[in-house]
Structure prediction request, 432 residues.
Amino acid sequence: MRPVSSFYYWWLSCGEHTSVFCKMNSGLRRRLKKQCIKNISALLREELITLLEEEVGKGKRIWTRKWLRDRSVTGASALLLQQLRLEDPSEYRMALRVTTENFDELLSLVHSKIQRNDTLMRDALPAKIKLEVTLSFLATGMSYRSLSHFYRVSKPSISVFIPEVCRAIYEALKQFIKVPNAEEWKNIETGFKTRWNFPLCYGSIDGKHVPIKAPPSSGSLYFNYKKTSSIVLLAVADHDYCFSYIDVGACGSASDGGVFKNSSIYRKLENNLLPNNGVIVGDAAFPLKTYLMKPYPGVNLSTEEKVFNYRLSRARRIIENAFGILVSRFRVLEKPIQTNLEAVDAIVCACCALHNWLRKTTTSYITATCVDVEDEEGNFLPGSWRSQIHALQSIANQGSNHSPRIAREKRELYKNMFMNEGSVPWQLRSIH
Prediction:
């Protein structure tokens, strides 16, 4: 049993002197009060120190596990990644999807947003490790627990800072995903015309279901037509596999009609976003508009209609390849993301921003073999991404089959042009 403290004995003795204290003059009483308070403070301090020493001695609480405290010596950041950075830069790029130079640049862009201050209780986790953990997560889709063991960072900390770092990445790189200016529109149109033989085309549009873990009590809100839970990523790609527009977060169940019509790009397209009366191209899921060309439906098509569909599919293949490269580089998108919805949105946006940034600033992000190509005779050669991943599910029909007459007439103009002055030598071979 704990011994009775000296403070307790002092308190018992106070009653014996009460009558004497009352008979003293006021000045003497004030001096005595001050002395008593001083004595009480000293006794309480001594008592508190004794209690703390006893609690520490019991050893019941460990602030940080020992294997986590060894992070700076045995964690992946200190050992493996440092060795790869010095000895094998190509494997470093495979591990984090960025070169060492890319990493250093990205760290300088996000450092001030993700670095916290040290406290009296512990040192803050370095921004460098936060970025390494986040890039590993995006590149592999590794579980938080596996990341915790690999980097020696606690799982609760990882679950907090990964969404924060993803938001910081998107904020730092969002300038690489923007509606093109006049000069950029011109470059995109030239690219589609010379590389994909589709004049006055300013982009390729598609939407994909990003698999997620259904939120609690969400019912069928995120349950899509493929009977999985998802959010929708709607995007427009330019001629060079970069996203010029993204819309993230629509519910998977909304795919039957609302995703495109409720997006901001729809309103801009309706208000003449594209220059020179140009178009973007999409698959059969999208409505036929004066600014959006889609294939002729059905199977009993004329030769002219088949040629148009073939030529449109070549241009539309850009967005399909952009999505394929995105998922092959950032495997977190390949399987259900096990986070809350706000974090999912941040993760998807960060992946898209990194995709554009790396495509525009490095030559190694997309190689000649990883995208679909056609040889000189028009034979289709699939990109390597098709054999590496499970492609994201496409969204369902985004409009009715009833299209404006002026839109149908515009498609007819393209059809006739592709059979005359705009024809390519291999197109008839490619439709049979």
